[in-house]
Design a protein that fits this description.
heterodimer, A: alpha+beta, Alpha-Beta Plaits, two-stranded antiparallel ribbon, 5 strands, 13% strand, B: 370 residues, mainly alpha, binds iron/sulfur cluster
């Protein structure tokens, strides 16, 4: 006796949703729990290393947005001193071309993606804001030398370093998908 | 004697004037019901969101207050602060009156739902008939809302509302009559008192019919054709906002609460239960029914209109009639002492009838794909 026409499908579906009750949620409680992003993320900021920068302005030329303001003066010897180095992260499209074009590895994309500000003026990253600090770290985008120090990306995994719990992934069904059709 | 009548007697003995003796308990009772219903609706909204979230592997709202319990209140404030928009070519009067006509009958239903021994506003001796009569008024409000909005989607929803609610009224009423036959009374208190064994065991088929019919009456999934978001946007309340929308929103949950209470009263033994106080038993039963409704919402897709109508007329209605005949014969022939025999018999009948009717009831020659 085949039960396909007697509402057995409804029972199957109800059982399936009931089993969902006992699986852990796959959402992440964002401000409290965060996923570790890709190590090569192009975050919403840039990191600049003043000691490596020669003021050649290659980055400014390669920026499709014309976004990098750089002004220099001749210092001791033939070295340039950088007076102004500003990137407006409100106009930046985070293409990473400036990072790729820098011949001295003096510019890197940032790791952070939480750069919302209340004022437009705050979006302009000055020399001080571009420098490396505790929560302003370079990502390994086009800079493989940073890659080893960064934590591995966690996709749909709670941040275990902060005592989070690991998600369990139960298979939807033991049978092959679509075998009922 | 209900608690309200006792209160009245107390006031009379304290030598209050006649009108005060009559009015004070009435107003107190109405306020009590209003507070009770609104509180439970708020908890229900929270419970539905959380449970639905868990069914869909989410957590549901959990940020506003402990476990997100204040989220419905935040939602209510948000809704109340919204601008009240009336469409240009709308029928202003009907547009204004419709939410009230939807909401008030739902509140009136609670007058005859007993939440404990004597804890009922009025013990009408025709309690069930009152419920049937009052609960059908909402459909007028829904049709008024859909017509007055001057919107094609809401008008479609209104047409569907009439068709759906009128069709499903019949099986619901017929399955209730089965209960009244066995209990020997239309009074809600008497029905609860008559249930030594909950009627869900005695009349499983009646319960299934009543449950499915009530689900359609209160427009819950999978019968939510009136509000089908994916086809007619939001159905009859598409042009409503602000306070008027809040009335519809409350009404939606209010009628679920009312029908869950009616189901608990008619089929699950009402407030009766061991150990715990009656109101707790009543609430437990209501929440179980509500959770089951959410479970169905999380699982089942919406029916098509033709499927909806044929389900009512070809499946539920004949089953309800047969169920009624079976119950009537049993009441006539079998003595009351043979409760267990009746239960076994009725479960057998239910299984046999559902199997038989599913065989007859196939759409498109039984092919699932079109
Ligand atoms: S990331 Fe692209 S847009 Fe932004 S500053 Fe660099 S080159 Fe310009
Ligand atoms: S390309 Fe590199 S080195 Fe040249 S100015 Fe830009 S950041 Fe400095």
């Amino acid at each position: 006796m085949k039960f396909e026409r007697y509402g057995i499908g409804i029972a199957k579906g109800m059982a399936l949703t009931f089993r969902h009750l006992f699986r852990s949620p796959i959402t992440i409680q964002y401000p409290d729990e965060k996923l570790v992003t890709s190590r090569r993320i192009r975050g919403n900021e840039l990191v600049w290393f003043p000691e490596k920068c020669t003021g050649c302005a290659t980055c400014a030329k390669s920026c499709p947005q014309g976004n990098i303001v750089i002004s220099t003066h001749r210092g001791e010897g033939s070295k340039f001193e950088v007076d102004i180095f500003e990137i407006d992260s409100g106009r930046c499209i985070f293409c990473g071309l400036c990072v790729e074009s820098c011949p001295y590895d003096a510019l890197a994309m940032g790791l952070s993606y939480e750069c919302a500000k209340y004022r437009r003026g705050d979006l302009i990253l000055s020399k001080e804001k571009l420098a490396v600090s505790a929560n302003h770290q370079p990502s390994a985008y086009y800079r493989p030398q940073f890659e080893d120090k960064l934590p591995k990306q966690s996709l749909l995994l709670y941040n275990q370093a902060e005592g989070g719990q690991k998600l369990k992934f139960l298979p939807l069904s033991k049978r092959k998908r679509g075998s009922g059709a | 004697m209900t608690l309200l009548e006792q209160f009245q007697l107390l006031l009379k003995n304290a030598n209050w004037p006649d009108w005060a003796v009559y009015l004070t308990p009435a107003i107190a009772g109405i306020l009590l019901i209003l507070v009770f219903v609104l509180t439970i609706i708020i908890v229900f909204i929270w419970w539905e969101r959380r449970l639905l979230g868990r069914f869909q592997l989410r957590t549901g709202p959990n940020r506003c207050g402990p476990e997100g319990i204040f989220q419905p209140i935040a939602t209510a404030i948000k809704i109340l602060l919204k601008e009240d928009i009336v469409p240009d070519k709308a029928d202003k009067l009907l547009h204004f009156v419709a939410p009230i006509i939807v909401f008030v009958p739902i509140l009136m239903l609670f007058a005859v739902i007993p939440v404990g021994e004597g804890a009922i506003l009025v013990d009408l001796n025709i309690g069930i008939i009152y419920i049937i009569a009052i609960s059908s008024i909402s459909v007028i409000g829904i049709f008024m809302a859909s017509w007055a909005s001057n919107n094609k989607y809401s008008l479609i929803a209104g047409m569907r509302a009439i068709a759906q609610m009128v069709s499903y009224e019949l099986p619901v009423v017929l399955s209730i009559v089965g209960v009244a036959l066995v209990a020997g009374s239309f009074s809600m208190l008497k029905i609860v008192e008559a249930q030594g064994i909950p009627y869900i065991l005695q009349q499983p088929l009646g319960f299934i019919i009543f449950f499915l019919g009530a689900l359609a009456e209160m427009n819950r999934s999978p019968f939510d054709l009136l509000e089908a978001d994916s086809e007619i946007v939001a159905g009859y309340h598409i042009e409503y906002s602000g306070m008027k929308f809040a009335m519809f929103y409350l009404g939606e949950y209010g009628i679920v609460l009312a029908y869950a209470g009616i189901m608990a009263t008619l089929f699950l033994g009402g407030w009766q239960g061991p150990l715990l106080p009656p109101i707790v038993w009543f609430l437990i039963k209501v929440v179980i029914i509500f959770s089951f409704i959410i479970w169905m919402r999380a699982t089942l897709p919406r029916l098509r209109v033709d499927q909806l109508m044929s389900f009512a007329w070809k499946f539920l209605l004949p089953m309800a009639v047969i169920n009624l005949v079976i119950i009537a014969v049993e009441v006539l022939v079998l003595p009351l002492s043979m409760q267990w025999l009746i239960i076994i018999l009725n479960f057998g009948f239910a299984a046999a009838l559902i199997l038989l009717w599913s065989k007859l009831f196939t759409l498109g020659g039984g092919r699932v794909e079109v």
